[in-house]
Design brief:
The protein has two domains: 3-42, no CATH class; 51-148, GMP Synthetase, Chain A, domain 3 (2-Layer Sandwich). Helices cover 30% and strands 34% of the residues. The protein contains three helices and six strands. It has helices at 51-73, 113-127, 129-134; strands at 3-7, 19-23, 28-31, 77-89, 97-109, 139-148. This is Osmotically inducible protein C. Pfam families: OsmC.
Length: 149
């Protein structure tokens, strides 16, 4: 896996902290910093997600992928799956994640709650590289809603 991240701004512009990531699979992801009124050259324009937001989003994608795949392999009729992540970060640099809560919403026909609970646990204990890595600094908790369709 590879990714190239390139700075898109220059010190003389308001977009001093914009970046574009080009992934090995050929996709592009924009990132930008928060505006800094005191030092505009140090801030972004709020045109894209912050880099740490993309870490959180990637973790959500990684675990949701696992949950859907595990449920489908169990022959469950999954129709929708989403995960809302909320987090807290350290006050001082490095401002690592210290707490992450993942709330899953899974919808489908006849899916047992135990199957959803098991899929989430398997993701966090075995398969989701991102959440397992972040668990080195963050307390990760989970919950879920199951919707019968």
């Amino acid at each position: 896996m590879e990714c190239t991240v390139s700075w898109t701004g220059d010190a003389g512009t308001r977009s001093a902290m914009g970046f574009v990531a080009e992934t090995g699979s050929g996709h592009v992801l924009m990132m930008d910093g928060a505006p800094d009124a005191a030092k505009p050259e140090n801030g972004g324009q709020n045109l894209a997600a912050r880099p740490m937001e993309t870490v959180l989003a990637g973790t959500g994608g990684c675990t949701a992928y696992d949950v859907v795949l595990i449920l489908k392999r169990g022959r469950h009729r999954v129709e929708r799956c989403s995960v809302k992540l909320t987090s807290e970060r350290a006050e001082k640099d490095p401002k690592v994640f210290t707490k992450i809560h993942m709330h899953f919403t899974v919808a489908g026909k006849g899916i047992p709650a135990a199957a959803v609970e098991r899929a989430i646990a398997m993701s966090h204990e075995t398969y989701c590289s991102a959440s397992i890595m972040l668990a080195k600094t963050a307390e990760i908790t989970t919950s879920f809603d199951l919707i019968e369709t």
